[in-house]
Amino acid sequence: IEERFLEELNEPCVTLDSVELKVMLNIEGVEGHDRMQKSGAGGIGLFRTENLFLSSSTFPSEDEQFEVYKGLVQCMSPNPVTIRTLDLGGDKNPHRSLTGYQEANPFMGFRGIRFCLEHSDLFKDQLRAILRASQFGAVKILYPMISSLVELKRANALLEEARKELEAENVPIGSDIQKGAMIEVPSAAVITDLLADHCDFFSIGTNDLMQYLLAVDRINDRIAYLYEPNQPSVIRTLNFIFKQGKMRNVPVSVCGELAADPLFAPLLIGLGASDLSVSLGSLAQIKYLIRRFSLHETKLLAIRCLRCEDPEAIKKELEAFYEKAM
Ligand code: PEP
Ligand code: MG
Fold it and tell me: pTM to 2 decimals?
């Protein structure tokens, strides 16, 4: 990480036209609390909980999960912590005994919310643990791999069940709990207006959204050259999601790798991202960059990019913007 980025780590994250933007942190496990606190992040934008479940051959209990979530929430308070519910499957090498069988197409298979809705006891344990942790600070619950309204409603129904159970048991839960859907499957992207009525926020997972939209396996080197964010199809889809969110007053954040790409971050902001969530190694640079352009300029950049017909033209726009800002 460059020294000049670190020097400004704790400066306000505001654009040249004085708009404050949050840069949040993506975490995979609970990396040191100290590091997270000193990271300069506005909170945790994505806690991938899979590692908790993959590190041993048995699933963690509700209490074990509660301790982890509680520690994290306390560590980041008063900033919010976004806990993504279990997203096993796909590239998150499921222990074979967990999902039960080997699949020909794991990325199109039994993963994420699909797995959790069929294992509702396990899902509810996790939801209960998260709800219990919410008494210690602001918690956002994020469902992965939502592909239809039915799935979102079923997940919400289980969340309500968990909440009622805890209330009946007189277990305290927080008052600041939001629920949101990952937008990472094209079928979810096209119904963001419908999903918006059933959640408080969206988070775009560009890693999966791109692979499903472009039909390019995100881990297949042979076709990696096709896994290209500069495509008009990708940018139009992102634009559509942000627009729908805005119309329904649902903030849309971005937690896929694209948020950490210094060429793309300004475009995502110009298209309407409420905040960006990036890994620890990219946080300082993205904050540094945000302090060097205006929101107004990013909106003009977005308009220019949306008019482009080919990836090369988009790339040129993004590079020119980046050079000017830095
Ligand atoms: C994504 O798909 O962009 C995302 C953030 O989730 P993951 O990389 O964990 O699938
Ligand atoms: Mg994903």
Answer: 0.96
